Amino acid sequence: KIRVRLSLQQREKLATCPVSKRLFSLMHTKATNLCLAIDYEEGERILELADKAGPFVCAVKVHADTIDEFNESWTSKLVALANKHDFLIFEDRKFADTGNTLSMQVKRNAASWADIVTVYGIAGEKSIRSAFQPIIADPSTRLKGILLIAQLSCEGNLCDTEYTNGTRRIAEANQDIVCGFITQEKISDKLGLIHWTPGVSLDETTDGKGQQWRSVEKAIMEQQNDIVIVGRAICNKTTPASELRRYRDAAWEALSAAMPK
Ligand code: BMP
Fold first, then answer.
1. Distances from the Cα of 58 to the Cαs of 40, 149, 173, in angstroms?
2. Which of 7, 52, 177, 244 could join 56 in a cystine, given CB atoms 3.0 to 4.6 angstroms apart?
């Protein structure tokens, strides 16, 4: 069943978070709602794939704390690729702490090189807002939005309905700094908020370590997400370039089917 949505350009007007405006615009221009999760340990290998993936993706997601040779020279090379191909740099650090600690962690670990970071809703609105609002408002920092983790893809996770609803309320009340959610399904009717979903593969359903994968079509058409986050289904293949095209096309086709022509 196809549910009609607003176009990306209409939603760009409704968004107030600076990174969301940029994201809606680049998704529309590049015709992509694919975020590539590059979970290699070798820094050089990440950069090589990010360069190949650039034209196909709206964002490249990394885990800085899993990368060998992670340093300023590496982040400046990633920033150069993001500028060359016009994609967002997404550091999936999953911050969760008191406001003062959050602020110190974000300034040291992400604010200068990442466009967007993940944050758990668990510490509550005051901690999140007091840490991120000044950083995002600072013109000298690259960080321009956060994604709140509302639901997880892994089996047996503890994100219950109460947590998800509480996280949704924080996002809806702080749309100037919150780009949207990491989630499994659409949870908010606020059209400026963007639903990003991990746990996607067209070939497999689990990695045997708790991860749960479902198809692009289910994630976008049935569960009403906007952006699919795909990792090993692309990165661990012998021909990532052809998989990039395959996932980009499947995701864009599913999203386009639900948007006005
Ligand atoms: P893969 O497609 O290889 O399973 O990778 C998914 C990526 O998304 C990983 O980097 C993982 O840390 C992240 N992720 C997830 O899989 N599920 C979540 O609920 C939240 C995540 O950030």
1. 19, 19, 25
2. 244
The alpha carbon of 93 is separated from its chain's Cα centroid by a whole number of angstroms, namely 11
Q: Give the tokens for residue 49.
A: 């794939």
Q: pTM of the entire structure? A: 0.98
Task: Retrieve residue 147's tokens.
Answer: 């994604």
Is 52 tagged catalytic?
no
- Binding-site residues, in ranges, read 39, 61, 153, 211, 231-232
Give the distance from CA 239 to its chain's centroid.
Answer: 23
Give the closest residue to 250 by CA, choosing from 21, 33, 15, 18. 33
Residue 94 CB-density burial (10 A; 0-12 exposed, 13-18 middle, 19+ buried): middle
Q: What is the dihedral of CA 160, 164, 169, 172, to 10 degrees?
A: 180
Residues with CB under 6 Å of ligand 1 are: 37, 39, 92, 152-153, 182, 198-199, 211, 229-233
